[in-house]
Amino acid sequence: MSRPQPLSGFPELLPRQRIVEQQVVDHLRRAFELHGFANLQTRAVEPMDQLLRKGETSKEVYVLRRLQADARDTSDAELGLHFDLTVPFARYVLENAGKLNFPFRRYQIQPVWRGERPQGGRYREFWQADIDIVDQGELPAHYEAEVALVVADALKDLPIPKVRMHVNNRKLSQGFYQGLGIADTEEALRIIDKLDKIGPDATAKLLVDGVDATPEQAEACLQLAAISSEDTSFVARIRALGVSDPLLEEGLTELAAVVDAVATAAPGFVVADMKIARGLDYYTGTVYEVFIEGEEHLGSVCSGGRYDRLASDGKNAYPGVGLSIGVSRLLVPLLQAGRLDATREVPTCVLVALANEEDRPAATALAQRLRARGIPTQLSPSAAKFGKQIKFADKRGIPFVLFTTDEGTQMKDIRSGDQLTVDVDTWNPPAEDLHPRIITE
Amino acid sequence: MSRPQPLSGFPELLPRQRIVEQQVVDHLRRAFELHGFANLQTRAVEPMDQLLRKGETSKEVYVLRRLQADARDTSDAELGLHFDLTVPFARYVLENAGKLNFPFRRYQIQPVWRGERPQGGRYREFWQADIDIVDQGELPAHYEAEVALVVADALKDLPIPKVRMHVNNRKLSQGFYQGLGIADTEEALRIIDKLDKIGPDATAKLLVDGVDATPEQAEACLQLAAISSEDTSFVARIRALGVSDPLLEEGLTELAAVVDAVATAAPGFVVADMKIARGLDYYTGTVYEVFIEGEEHLGSVCSGGRYDRLASDGKNAYPGVGLSIGVSRLLVPLLQAGRLDATREVPTCVLVALANEEDRPAATALAQRLRARGIPTQLSPSAAKFGKQIKFADKRGIPFVLFTTDEGTQMKDIRSGDQLTVDVDTWNPPAEDLHPRIITE
C-alpha cells in the first residue's frame, strides 16, 4: 500500500492543530451552555425530499446508496448527507414537538457536507457550531437580539482576529424594493447578494435585466445597499431615500430593535448593513453575517437569520432564529497558516521514566496516583537510556519527567533542567502546564 | 408538511438523554487524556478501495454520489462512509507518518455508518470511542495490557452495569488448530466465533464440513473454546489438552502477559476466554471483547485487538493495538429503557424572571454577571405572571429563579420554595445544582 494522498475539500488536522480546534469548540460549548442552550446531535442523513426543499445549497447534496442494496429493495427512502444543521434541526423539532418544551433553545456542533467543487476556503466536509431558538406559534422578537449576543459572548475571548456582525432584515429590503415598484423582490434580493462579488455596475445591470427595474430603481437599490451604521441612524438615512411601504416599516422597526439591543450589551460588535442578503432562502426577517474585520473578502465566518416558515406540521408553525459559526472556515486557514498552535501535541503533563522494564507495573501504579489527581501522565515506551527517555518527552512537548533514584522520586522540568525530590501524592505542575494551551503567532 | 417519522437504525436522543450521553463522552475523553491520548478527528469518507480492503464489515458500506456529479466527470474517486474508526486511523497514520511521533497514541470519538439491516441493538449510524497505540516497525507487547487498563479506567466510574473484558489471542487459537492438524485456521476461527450463537453441536458440524476437521479435532477445538480463567491458570489447562505448536506457545506467552498485567492493576476486570475470536479479520494477536456481566447475549459493548498488518507503506509497517467503546450500543438501550436520566433537560441553573418587558436589558446584564462566574443562566421568555415564569423553570428542571423586588434581588429555590435576598456577584448554587447530573433508575 503506497502513501495515501489527502482528499481535496476534506481537511484533516494534525494532533497539535486538533488540540487548538478542540479547545475552541470547548469554549463555544461552554458559552452556549452558560446561556442555557442544551446540546443536540442529529443523524448525518435526511431523506432526500427534506434536503431538496430549500435553498441553493440543496443542489450540492451527497446522496447515499447501500453497497449491498438490492435493486428490487425499495423499502429504504433515498437518503443524503445534511448540508447544514438548520434543516435537520427543523425536522427534529417537528418530529419531537410533543416531547419538547417551547421556546426551545439548542446548540449543535457537527460536520456538514456539500458536494461542491472544492476551492479556497470552501470545503466538502466542515464543522459548524449552531445555536437556535424555536417557538411554537409565535417567536418573540427579542430572541433576534439574544442569539446575536450569545455569539458575541462565544467569540469574545477566542484567539481569533477581531470580528464584527453585519445585520439586516429581509422585510426591510424587500419592502423597500416593493415600495419602489419592483415586483420580484426575492430575485432582487438574490441579485443584491452578489454586490460584493460583481460590483455596483454589474449589479445594476442585473436588476434592470432580471427584475425589470428602471435605471432609477436600480440606483435606489444600490443606494439602500450602501447604507450602514453602528447605531440606529440607518433608519433616518433610509427614510431620506423617500420610499414608503408597510413591509419596509416593519423591517426598519425590527432591525432598529436588534441593533439597539446588541449595541447596548456588546458595544462595537454589531453594524446594520443594508447589503446583507444571505443565500439561503428560508430566512424571513433578520439576517446576520459575521466577518473578520479587514478580511471581509474571505466571506462570513458565522451567519444566520430568522426563519418563520421552515417548520410547520399543519397545526402549528415553529418559527425560529439562529446563527451558525463556521468552525472549520474560521480555524482551518489560521491553523494551516501557523497563526494558531498548541504548546504541545499531547495532553500528557508528566512522563514516568523507567530504569528497567521490570519496573513497569510499579510505574503504572505511580502514574495512576498522578492521574487520580487529574494530572495527565503516561509511561515511557521502554527502559531506554535516560537521555532517550527525556528526548521522547521533549519531542512531544511533555514538560515533566518523573523517575526514581536512591534519593527518592524525582520530578524534572525538562525545559529548565530543574529537578526536585517530590511526593507524587501532593506535587502539582504550574497551572499553565497542566493542559496544552493555545498560542498565537 | 406532516410530522416526520424516525429513520430505523438512526437513533436520535431527546435533550435530557443527550445530556447523559454528553457527560459519559466527557468522562471517556477525560480518562483517555489522563493517559496521554491526543484527540483526532478523521473525515467521514474514505475512498472505496480502502474500505473494501478488510473484513466482513466492509460489505455494509454506504457509497456516496454527488447529486450534481456529471456522468463524464471521473475526477472524483468513489467515496464511502467509514464503517469503523480503525481503517481511517490506519490511513491517517500512513498519510501523516512523517509528521507524527511514534509510538503514537490517539483517541477518536465519532459516528460510524453501516448499511446493514437495522435490528435489535444494531444501528446504521452509531458513535464509537476508540483508543489506539501505533508504532513504526515494532510495537512493544506491553501496550496490549495498557490499552486494556485505559478502558478499565475509562469505564470504571460510569453509571453503567458492571462490565468485564474477555481476552484471547489469535496466535493461541490458530496455533492450537495448526497443532491439531487443521489447515485452514482462519476459517476455523470464523466458525468458533459463531459458537455462542449456534451452540457446540452446530459448531462441531461446521468444523467438520468447513475445514475438514475430524470429529476428534472438532471436539478438541470446542474443549479449547470452553477454557476461561481470571488468572493465568488457563495456560496449564490448555497444555493439558496435549497439543503443541510454536505459534500456540507464542500466543500462550502473550496472553498470559496481558492477563497478568491487567489482573494486577485492575483486579476482577479481565478474564482469559478462549472462545473470543472477533469478526474483523485485521487482528493478528490479542483480541478483546467487553460484555455487560450477565448480559453477554447483548453482544460486546467494547472490542478490539492487535493488528500488525493493517498499515504499511512498503518501507515501514505500522503495527497497532486498540479498543473501541460502542458508545451508542452501550447507552442508547439504557436511555430508551429509562435506566439513565438527567436531573434536568437544560444546562440552565438560574432563570432570571422579568417584572415587565422593559426590564430585559437590565436583566440581560444581571444574567451576564452570573455567567461570568460560570453559572448557566437564561432569561424568561416574557414578563408573564410570576407563577407562569416559575412554571417555565419547573417544566425544564431549572432549580433557581432570580427576581427583583423592593427588598432587592431575590433567589428562589423553586423545589423547596426557599427565598433569599442575594448579592448576584457572590451567590453560588450548591455544587450539585450547578450542572445537570446523571441519575440512575
From TrEMBL, chains A, B:
GO molecular function: ATP binding; histidine-tRNA ligase activity
EC number of this enzyme: 6.1.1.21
SUPFAM superfamilies: Class II aaRS ABD-related, Class II aaRS and biotin synthetases
Keywords: Aminoacyl-tRNA synthetase, ATP-binding, Cytoplasm, Ligase, Nucleotide-binding, Protein biosynthesis
GO biological process: histidyl-tRNA aminoacylation
CDD domains found in the cross-reference section: HisRS-like_core (cd00773)
GO terms for cellular component: cytoplasm
Positions of the Aminoacyl-transfer RNA synthetases class-II family profile domain: 20-347
Catalytic activity from the UniProt record: tRNA(His) + L-histidine + ATP = L-histidyl-tRNA(His) + AMP + diphosphate + H(+)
Statement: the UniProt record of this protein carries the keyword Aminoacyl-tRNA synthetase: yes
Record-linked InterPro entries: aa-tRNA-synth_II, aa-tRNA-synth_II/BPL/LPL, Anticodon-bd, Anticodon-bd_dom_sf, His-tRNA-ligase, HisRS-like_core, HisRS/HisZ
Binding residue positions for L-histidine: D84, L85, T86, R114, Q128, D132, R278, Y282, Y283
Cited PANTHER family: HISTIDINE--TRNA LIGASE, HISTIDYL-TRNA SYNTHETASE
Protein family (similarity comment): Belongs to the class-II aminoacyl-tRNA synthetase family.
Quaternary structure note: Homodimer.
NCBIfam families from the UniProt entry: hisS
Protein name (database record): Histidine--tRNA ligase
Organism, as annotated: Glycomyces terrestris
